[in-house]
TrEMBL record:
Domain (Methyltransferase type): residue spans on this chain: 43-139
Protein name: Methyltransferase domain-containing protein
Domain of life per record: Bacteria
Protein species of origin: Pseudonocardia xinjiangensis
Short name of any one Pfam family annotated for the protein: Methyltransf_11
GO biological process: methylation
GO MF terms held by the record: methyltransferase activity
Keywords in alphabetical order: Methyltransferase, Transferase
């Protein structure tokens, strides 16, 4: 079964969702932890709409360089227009499993919400280690979909919808494996944290308002979920909001690692 597609519509949707205050706050935490310095060379693997690459570029300044790499032409078009005023960003087509850079090219690298889409993780992390200099640092952030809490009254329907949604990635539960994978790829992992996306109310500018629409579209025809099921699931979530007892929370896991 195909995972989520980052075609033109998919890319615009990620761009909208990643502009919500929830994801803006997530990016601020990522930046604070990675702490990019003026003059550094930084790689953003799976750079998507380019928000993080732009912030990284502001931190390293014109004496540094930021490379954004992504296989989606639609994402790269958005990221290039976002980067136009910062000529020290380069957005390139490519895949995490075969990084098109020489050994020891970068001081730091990030991959946020990307590796869960990458089938061969040992290979991707071997590539990540290869392109970082010894002592270089990396920050990896991914979601474990077991961490999802969403108030619904029909929990059986909700479980079916989320089981179907888990097909949008190759690895819906990657965080449990990441520290071990990073260590086996030649990293130490001095710091692990969580970033919680928490919406105690539903409004258009929340992460969960954007996600519920995407999930309702994606799940139809998967794991026996019908269009009527998807409408009923959405209706249940919105009714929770109308009745004042909406609640959504999802945990991202962050790994800060150093190349040995
Ligand atoms: C949910 S978006 C995250 C974008 C960005 N990292 C961020 O946090 O704003 C996932 C991105 O991963 C990219 N992606 C998927 N498979 C990939 C792969 N094998 N190598 C590199 N990037 C990949 C997609 O094209 C998409 O842009």
């Amino acid at each position: 079964m195909a995972t989520l597609e980052f075609d033109e519509e998919g890319a615009r949707r990620v761009e909208r969702t990643y502009a919500t205050p929830d994801v803006v706050a997530q990016r601020a935490q990522v930046l604070a932890l990675l702490a990019p310095q003026p003059g550094e060379r930084v790689l953003d693997i799976g750079s998507g709409p380019g928000y993080l690459a732009a912030s990284l570029a502001d931190a390293v300044g014109p004496t540094g360089t930021v490379y954004g790499l992504d296989p989606s032409p639609a994402m790269n078009a958005i990221a290039r227009s976002r980067s136009a005023t910062r000529p020290w960003i380069r957005i390139e087509d490519g895949d995490a499993a075969t990084l098109p850079y020489p050994d020891s090219s970068f001081d730091a690298a990030v991959a946020t919400q990307v590796y869960e889409y990458v089938p061969d993780m040992p290979r991707a992390l071997a590539e990540l280690r290869r392109v970082l200099r010894a002592g270089g640092r990396t920050l990896v952030l991914d979601t474990d979909w077991d961490s999802l809490v969403w108030h619904t009254t029909d929990r059986e329907l909700h479980r079916r919808v989320i089981a179907a949604w888990e097909e949008h990635v190759v690895h819906p539960h990657l965080p449990c494996l990441l520290a071990g994978l990073l260590r086996r790829a030649g990293f130490t992992v001095p710091e692990q944290r969580v970033v919680v996306l928490f919406n105690p109310q539903l409004h258009a500018q929340t992460f969960s308002a954007n996600m519920m629409e995407l999930i309702a579209e994606f799940v139809v025809g998967r794991r026996g979920v019908t269009a009527e099921d998807a409408v009923a699931w959405l209706g249940d979530l919105r009714a929770r909001a109308d009745e004042g007892d909406y609640l959504f929370s999802l945990t991202r896991y962050v790994f800060l690692a150093t190349a040995t």
